[in-house]
Amino acid sequence: MQQYLRSDGPQSAGIANGLLALFAIAAGLSVANIYCAQPFLDAMAHDFAVSHAMVGAILTVTQAGYALGLFFLVPLGDMFDRRRLIVCQLLLSVLALVAVALAPTVTMMLCAMFLVGMLATVIQVLVAYAAALASSEQRGSVVGKVTSGVVIGILLSRTAAGALTDLAGWRSVYWVSAGLLLVMAGALWKRLPVGADRDATLPYRQLLTSVFGLWRDEPLLRIRGGLAMLVFATFNVFWSSLALELSSPPFGLSHSVIGSFGFIGVAGVFAAAGAGRLADRGYEQWTTGTALILLVTSWLAIGLLHRSLVYLICGVILLDLAVQAVHVSSQSLLFAKLPEARSRVVAAYMIFYSIGSGAGSFASTWAYAHTGWTGVSLLGIVLAMLALISWAAARSRMPATSTDTLIQQCQPKENCL
Question: What does pTM read for this prediction?
Fold first, then answer.
């Protein structure tokens, strides 16, 4: 594995709060393009004359593009100037979003959504770049804060997308997003450090090969990747079918109201930031176990939707909190374990995330079309239980991680807190 890493890089001195905020905003705007379609899937299905069973393909194609982008684009952050890479991806994203807004047929729309997903992987370049600029003492907190921006982007994208759809149609969502990303590209070009060090000097082909080497040689990456696949599958099972259920009788809610349910998940913002702080203190595993228990609990509440919307609200809060806590804990562990291959590590990890998200979206709409909300709820709770069981089983087999060892060695214990 050592041939894939470079160990002579300088120690990061830290990252200013203003620049960190810019990272978070850019990540939030980028992730919005992946999730903004969820509140108006029914409108897209009607516009392009596709069934509810197949409308999940829109999200699946986006995630497929995201998965390929993770493999082919994100590792470039270890090879090229990240400032140029980030700005180029944002400008190309603008063109892809315009293509979605203008798409006259479902085929052209799906092709454009594939490109939107592929280029949205700039999120992971931003996360890896922020982690590289952070000092070791603040790295978990920095990852948590950038991830908080991602959570806010997901929440606001659903709320804003629902409102814009009711006001001006679903295509207006992509026009607005294109404009915001164009502004953000200019801001990042101006503020990001020029000529920052890269983590690798490998040729592109060898750089891609090294991603497979990381998968093969790092058990922690395989374990955390598997968790990401299950956790984000259950996350997308919920959000992909919610609009279909709430827009139908007996609810009959508007796109604006359905989108506002995403804002209830603001708990995920606090979970991401809190998990980052706990990671800096060495409590990633404790945070993961607690969050997975909450994930199972969230689906018990979501399954009671038809009894009261209050159960749905409670379930959304727990769902977003749990998913983001697991996500930040996983990234913190991986960045600490492999600090000199951050872009490739996050690419390898997030490919699992993308596979889970795409499969969850498609399985969700298929289950809804055939078994209704009951089938969706059963699917979600099974995936959540599998995540908890797989983490517990892997935890019993794995030796203590570096952070666990640090906790054991801290004397007195207050030094770890």
Answer: 0.73
